[in-house]
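Dear H.,

Thanks for agreeing to be a second pair of eyes. The structure we're designing against is below in token form, covering all 310 positions.
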């Protein structure tokens, strides 16, 4: 399966066109609950609103489920179109089909909305695969819908990066650079295609890298010096492993315009998380974000409900 990463966004609400605007709780938007409002909207979303000709992307919501008392999970499809091509069997190299310019090879990913019974912030977490992130577009569509839905309330969204969540008090334990599709000329032998080459840098035993190194890892020359490969090719992926409070997580650094750091849910060689595992991972993340905002996420709000996977 392909690599999956996770991004998180906060949703807050306040009075529209007011200088000293009052805030609204997501569970009480002039008597309406964001959870139900979002779920009803997602169920009614038509195919015609899922096509983005500007970016040549296609997104659809395959299923909408209430998986916990205060959590909605979306099963999504995402793909890109606009250029014809061939479908190739990567094992044999044989062409097994073609794609027209109005056809989009699609992949599946998921998004979850967490709405607390009390509190000023809702949380939207979107899974991203090599096909893209359908969740990001769905959130933009809902924000546009909400703006037209009410003249009283404005919804503000903000991406939350893991650097905010983990770089404070976390220890940088490992830096890995991965190169994919690399050609190698073997002396007195054939040229071969190597699937992935990894360069790993770890600090000396019982030590950690300095925290100030993390923001510098977006510079290719810094990464190259760290792994002793001064001429790193473009397109390399940089992973960091961090430890905090006895927990270890792996993140991938984003490119320009992407979230600064995204949590890696599974590597390309690992199975995709089940719905239960994804719910547990996202619940932990929401709890972390709430605690940083001096808020609380009650575990019962995201406890698996009868509609979830068993």
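And this is the sequence the design step returned. I haven't edited it by hand at all.
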């Amino acid at each position: 399966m392909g690599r999956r990463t996770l991004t998180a966004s906060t949703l807050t609400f306040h009075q529209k066109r007011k200088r000293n605007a009052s805030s609204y709780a997501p569970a009480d938007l002039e008597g309406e609950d964001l959870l139900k409002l979002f779920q009803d909207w997602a169920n009614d979303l038509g195919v015609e609103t899922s096509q983005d000709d500007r970016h040549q992307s296609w997104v659809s919501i395959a299923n909408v489920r209430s998986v916990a008392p205060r959590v909605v999970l979306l099963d999504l499809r995402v793909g890109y179109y606009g250029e014809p091509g061939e479908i190739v069997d990567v094992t044999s190299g044989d062409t097994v089909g073609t794609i027209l310019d109005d056809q989009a090879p699609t992949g599946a990913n998921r998004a979850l909305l967490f709405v607390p019974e009390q509190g000023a912030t809702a949380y939207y977490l979107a899974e991203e695969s090599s096909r893209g992130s359908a969740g990001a577009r769905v959130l933009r569509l809902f924000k546009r819908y909400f703006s037209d839905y009410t003249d009283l309330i404005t919804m503000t969204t903000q991406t939350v990066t893991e650097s905010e969540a983990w770089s404070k008090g976390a220890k940088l334990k490992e830096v890995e650079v991965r190169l994919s599709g690399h050609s190698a000329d073997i002396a007195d032998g054939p040229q071969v295609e190597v699937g992935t080459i990894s360069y790993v840098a770890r600090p000396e035993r019982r030590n950690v890298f300095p925290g100030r190194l993390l923001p510098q890892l977006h510079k290719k020359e810094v990464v190259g010096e760290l792994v002793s490969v001064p001429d790193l090719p473009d397109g390399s992926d940089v992973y960091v492993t961090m430890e905090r409070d006895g927990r270890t997580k792996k993140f991938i650094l984003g490119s320009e315009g992407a979230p600064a750091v995204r949590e890696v849910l599974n590597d390309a060689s690992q199975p995709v998380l089940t719905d239960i595992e994804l719910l547990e991972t996202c619940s932990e993340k929401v709890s972390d974000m709430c605690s940083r905002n001096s808020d609380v996420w009650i575990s019962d709000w995201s406890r698996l409900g009868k509609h979830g996977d068993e």
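Two observations from my side: The chain has five helices and 15 strands. Helices lie at 34-44, 134-149, 162-166, 220-226, 275-292.

Warmly,
E.
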